[in-house]
Amino acid sequence: MSAKKIALIGSGISSLSCASFLAKEGHDVTILEKNDSIGGRARQFRSENGFTFDMGPSWYWMPDIFENFYRQFGYTTSDFYELVRLDPSYQVIWNEHDTDQIPASVTELEQFVEKLEPGSSIKLRRFLADAEKKYQIGMKDLVYKPSLKLSEFADTRILSGLFKMHLFKSYSSFIRKYFSHPKIISLLEFPILFLGATPKDTPALYSLMNYADIQLGTWYPMGGMFEFVKAFERIAREQGVRFLLDHAVTGINTSNGKIQSLNTNHGTFGFDFVISGADYRHTEQLLQNQANYSDTYWEKRVMAPSCLIFYIGLDCKAPHLEHHNLFFDEDFDKHAHEIYKDPQWPSKPLFYVSCPSKTDPSTAPEGSENLFLLIPIAPGLEDNEQLREHYFNLLCERLSKKTGFDIRPHISYKRSYCISDFMNDYHAFKGNAYGLANTLKQTALLKPRIRNKHLSNLFYTGQLTVPGPGIPPSIVSGEVVAKYLIRQIEKR
User: Fold this and answer.
1) Residue-wise DSSP of 189-232
2) Cα separation, 8 vs 15, whole angstroms
3) Could you tell me where the DSSP H helices lie in 268-344?
4) pLDDT tens digits for range 247-284
5) In 3D, which of 186, 223, 213 has the Cα closest to residue 77?
6) pLDDT tens-place string over residues 81-103
């Protein structure tokens, strides 16, 4: 097989994964990145006064997916960073004087739920046993399919497993078959926030996320989430991948049903194959009449949320916070309605606070604290500084009321990030942060396809195609597309 010149547009996780597998097979692979640093949404920055902020993902789940990637290149996770399991996994603030720390130990979690609802510990074991089966089928078999034709799922084991996946039952109703206490239900529905749909609109298949949360655990790579980006970059470079930063792709030149070259702000480059890890819809706009999908198609997609983020450095320690903190002190259903059903800025949002300096002192100067505050919001909303400040003060008031500590007098660094930033930095459709919602109608074969139907040498990877949003699915997406393309090259 002769080596091909292959371009990856964007340097997010799926692109880094994809590039590594392609270069390992001997291909000449170049990553074109519009920004001045790699990692896409998982980038990192350091403030002038010594705080280190991970810009996007802050939850390290499904460590087995990372390990599987590393092993294919002769490494293990510990070759790159120290991975620490968090205990408690996270903290939930329900109301004043009502806070629960969720233990990492399954035995301790069983004791916790049993106090809330007698008999629920046994139900939790049954629920997790079912979730484990879904995880083994979903994350070991289904997600590694290119999802281009139905026959991919014709394997007897997969077909028999699909009948146990509860694809046509809602996540919300499935959980309520087991539990009735509102706290238990909220804890089990919480991971759905990462999937971009309400529990009522998400297939019960995704209870596999509860297995990932409870059994596989919540972890943290010392040094920050960017440590795994650095690991992926190292592997890619060792395979021979070339990185061109500050190279924005501005046009795609085609002829005879193929891409001939890519225009960038630094000139035009020719390639045999192109894989876009950039925003799918943005790439399609560069193609015009050779796109897979119309503007109408994209307008009808159910998008996962965007978010308003604040990166905060404090000149002191913040009491009563854990590494991960979920503020569930307002109505979940109302907030979800304002994201998905009637898109608007939320009236009383739930929010999330990460405080990595509780685990990792290197993220903040000595005696200081590193905070990451996030509100999930509907994509496509108006975004301006006045709105950002309104919500920042709202969060500060809630933090002060629930923890007894007002962070505002202690802020030594502050930066916000929202819809317009996602659009400017990543060309994100409607400023989304998490891709497509994982509804039944947007799962597997029903997601945007990994190959262009008009151009024989254009493919897509990332959170807007299979298997979906999140770091582990993005790792898988890169592998799936790379190995599919390798097979296509071998056939030619």
Assistant:
1) HGGGGGTTS-GGGSBGGGGHHHIIIIII--EEETT-THHHHHHH
2) 6
3) 280-287, 295-300, 332-336
4) 999 999 999 999 999 999 999 999 999 999 999 999 99
5) 223
6) 999 999 999 999 998 889 999 99
